[in-house]
């Protein structure tokens, strides 16, 4: 399936900018966005049939190859947001997921992406990881009707 | 008002144990609880009429004097929890707030407390802070009927 | 060995207050101290003959039973500190470790303690943990001459 | 000055992978790299004559426009690393700084960049920020002989 033809469903992860997420400039400390991206990815896969507890029990992991983010507007304590996630592209054993962080008033705060491997610990948690083939069945779970 | 006679309302802060909150042992990294305590305190005061955005605009702060926590049962990724907060005691310019972290199945995961000053930045954010008198009006906002 | 007769060596963990460790009040966000306590404990055990990599390879863990901290003076970005750690008490399968955070100018910033179990994963990382007997040999590594 | 002709000095920020920096897969949780990038940037500017305490006192800030990172090799607890930072490009009021994270054995773990504004709070910490002109004097502090 080529990328152009693929239409991903959208995952939604709700979050709030907490006091602890901000730095002395009074706005969000930027790695917070990447922490949210990570949580949003787990939540999106959970909603698509891969709950985090099952993933962990079966040794499945999604290690990162790369990540990037543009910071469009500053976020402040008390802002309610949602991270909207979509699969941009499936590789053989990896995928690209994009995230948009949108404040409750509709303002886009940040957008970015993660490149991840679909992998498995070879011998239980903490052991070396190896990429796994991404099956058509897996992809189908993220495809919009 | 003596502590024995004071009955605080309970604040409820919902949270989830994320992948990012856990360490190589596979369970929650314990400072996460204190981060939740902090967010729960802000949320509780917000619900009682002191929203975090107003607090920040007016230079109000709640710096810590001490904090403690007992870890009762391990929390794992995907656990849904709530932090239940109560004011244990009001001082002249400080207060003690207690927190219980309870998992969705009713299991108590952790319980602890924070001792905080009710303070104000003397000259805007980042400037020195000074304790403020805790008024009867403030206390009344946390009193159960 | 009773607690009174035990004289622990002191571990020293150097750290700096980073921009990322501080919150919109311009001072350290308090869970940072607990993060340092954790790193200081690992460093102390490493110096005493239990390097973190060996601990992990052999499934050894030190899960928390409780933790507390008093915040004595505010810490700001750029402050250079050290955490001075000592074993306060050995139990059969647990121990209490105390930490003092001292700024380069000698000011005490915070002091606290952690109560931890000396444990082991029963079946590799991520599996259930069980307390292990604390041997005389282990204690001897933390005893001052 | 064009980018090609500019040769930046290299900043070095030493760090260690702590237990708290890792996740249930047993390796570094990736936003840790961005936290290090941030600390490395502050350290680099500090070494070049802009200590963080002075920056804060004078209301100087370096808000982010974007950030990215490639994860080349996994980092584990106990790994000693350094972040090597260079100014890639100066804009009128912004700059690009690149970072390489290298383990003590010489292995490249990650490399990335931050795009930041050279800015100032208009009215003290927490107030709105505005980009400032990057002077030749500022650039000269990062130029190799």
Describe the protein in words.
The structure is a homotetramer of 145-residue chains. Chain A has 145 residues and is α+β, with helices and mostly antiparallel strands. The first copy, chain A, is 19% helix and 37% strand. The first copy, chain A, has helices spanning 31-47, 52-57, 136-140, and strands spanning 11-16, 60-61, 64-71, 80-90, 94-103, 108-117, 119-121, 129-131. Chain A has a five-stranded antiparallel sheet, with helices on one face. Chain A is globular. Chain A starts with 10 loop residues before the first strand and ends in a 5-residue tail after the last helix. In chain A, 45% of the residues are buried. The mean pLDDT of chain A is 94. Chains A and D meet through helix 1 and strand 3 of A and helix 1 and strand 3 of D. Strand 3 of chain B pairs antiparallel with strand 3 of chain C, so a sheet runs across the interface.
